[in-house]
Amino acid sequence: MRVKAQACDTACMTDAGPDAEGTTREQELLRENAALRTRIAELEARLAAIPMPPPPIGDAAPRNAPPISPPDARTTAPSRSDALTAEQFIGRRVVPFVGAIAVLGAVGYLVNYAIEIGLIGRVPPEARFALGVLIGLGSLAIGEFVRRRGAPGAATGLDAAGVGAVMVSVALGVFTLNIFSPSSGAWVAGAAAVLAAAWSLRSGSVAVAIVALIGVYAMPAGVGLVSDEPRSAGILLALALAIGLATHLVGGTRFAPARYLAIAAAIVLGAPVLYSLQAGEEAFCFALAWWFLVIGECTLAAQRGTDARGNAIVALMASGGLVLVEIGTWPSGLIGGITVELLPSIAGGVLLGGALLLRPMAFDPKDDEERASLGQEGIAIGTACGMLSRTFAALALALGIGGLVFLVGSGLHAVVLVGTAAAACWIGRRYALLPFDLVAVMFGSVGTFLGIFHAIEAAATKTSFALPWAPTIDLSVQWSAEVAALGVAVGCAYAMGSLLRLPWSAGLLVPAMAIGWCAFSVRLLPGIFGCALLVVPAMVVAWIPRARIATIVGALLPCMLAGAWWFGRSMDVAWGPGRSGTVELIAVVVPWIAAVLLLSRHPAFGRAREAMSRLCVVASGGAVAFVAAVMGSHAGFDGIDAGFSVVIGLAIASAIVTVVARLAREAAALDAGLLLAGGMIATCGILGLSRLFTRDAIDWAPALEFTALGASVAALAIGAAMSRSFGLAATRRDALAAAVAFAIAPFLVLLLSAIMGSPLAPAAAVGCLVLVGVAELVLGFRWNLAALRWSGLACFGVLVLRLYAVDLADAPMLVRIGLLFVSGIVLVGTGIAYARITRTTA
Length: 842
Prior knowledge:
Elements: H1 2-14, H2 24-49, H3 86-116, H4 125-148, H5 152-175, H6 182-203, H7 206-222, H8 225-228, H9 230-251, H10 256-276, H11 280-303, H12 308-332, H13 338-341, H14 343-358, H15 368-402, H16 413-431, H17 434-457, E1 461-466, E2 474-479, H18 481-499, H19 503-507, H20 510-524, H21 528-533, H22 536-541, H23 549-575, H24 582-599, H25 609-634, H26 640-664, H27 667-692, H28 702-726, H29 730-756, H30 762-783, H31 786-807, H32 813-841
């Protein structure tokens, strides 16, 4: 490279020619450059010829060298040696934690025992309260000692036990010792929760914060503060919510469980507090104050780049709770009024301002250079702010429109909310925005369930008419604007199930789909024909190839409920006091069978389609068999004879399914037909065994037995012929042959009992079983058929049963305390020792 550079420089000097006059300075610079290059090349050659000695081992750094600063813990990835293996995690964390809980249990049992024997009863109440507090503080001190000895798992357990002991002491001071009034006890618990939250941040223990939150949330409800002093209860809930949010804001993502617990508990416990407040303006202020706490913490966390997804989820939870507050005012009217009804609209305006505030901070680096300039912290802030700004925008749209729902009548509430959900669904699909998908799910669910409430509450007009082909059936239709609104809401929910961008978000709508359609069906057609209406979504969705699995599941669940409802109604019709309604049962089961068979073939099931087809065909065959049983019951057949109706129904269903499967060349349906044949054989075998163990003849019907046996043989012959000509079910034929081998003896017992018209005598029963068993064993060994040998052994087992069944007729309290305490100490000590050993060997 240097030779080439020199050649280039020389060429430049040579090609200058006469035009180079006046540029003497440039020529001199070029000559100096060439000379310098030549000198550098000579020096490099001399340096390469000098051998370099190896560096001395253990050479100390120069005295004047600047000190080397340790790497920043925030930018350095943790080493592999710091990560705990599964064994170390159990030994150092789980074992001592369980030991600490055991020690706490021993202390609790000891205190209880002391109370029972009257030892603590002699101590003044104030001293008992102080003793409980001292036990809690002592647990915290021991936890700090154990933490410094290298057992953080035990320290966490002891910290949680200490905070729990303090909270329990406060509760005892209210309920048992009568030291505090309910209001004072709640405030003492709140102050203890503040100190516990500070201790949890200092020690990094999430369990301590959770125990503190449970205590401070339980006190207002436990002491009756919610109903007696709702204002104090609302302030305490705000304090507890602020504690949970502050731990997350200061402690980071690690304290996310405390954050979610605080918000969920505030939503659950805030409803009765708002209900107890008589003034709507007070409820309005409390609800907005709780909501502002959550939204403000989300905004601050996003600006710090903490927990981007969690901020969006928390904003959704809080806004959903605000909507539920407004919905709760509609039926009661206790805290209603224009003020509370404007809650979502005001919140929507605030969220729109928050979205505009966070939007400039939503950095989206386009390339590696911009990413490097932002750094990890800048990227985290940009991601969190961008996600939360999109969430705020989606919630602003939803609350802004949904908050004005009170302007329309109650019958249209569901339509407005679900319409808002449909608009959010379209925006989320069009612009690939997850927050709008979640808003669609939330408002779709809320709108559907609100429609259910209004449809059930409203009085509907009733119209009755009879079907022309069945004048004995009275079909009653109940109709109202609320029922129509519910139908529209459920239809939109089913449509959104296939239009939402993400399948898992569509799956969240399944409960609204299924429960909403069930309520609509029952409200529109009360009685057994409401059961028939449940299968309509399945019949419609079956013809939509692009329907997603969520929509299909939402249509399948009402079908399953319809089957259970029909079965229960059939039981009442067959064996209830009225014994009527067979025509209605047949009219309902036909669309149900059509719906499940059509839906089982939907392309969305993928590889599971064949399994679903088999299952639905078998279920349909079972329904046919049950109809036969109901008809047999109406004909007067009870007990064992009613089972023969089931056998005949299974035989008919099996024959029809196998023939149709053969013509349509459907292997799955053929397998289902053979399964129905197997169920027929099993049912007939159970009936044969029942005859074998029957002593008295009750309601004997030999003709029905002959019919059931003939139908079984015919169904088996048809199944064998169809499977043989199909050429795909050799293994199934073998399995069916094995089932027949096991059923030979019961079939023979049925045949003999039908011929004799009475139960078999002991000699005939024993002889039948012996002959069949010996023959099956002999043929099984000769033909090398294991099924025959096993069935022969089964015959001898039944013979033994026939002969024997028919022919021959806690620890003391002190021990518990000692075991808990000793085991807990041993576990804690094991955790400490395990931590030291693993740290030494690492």
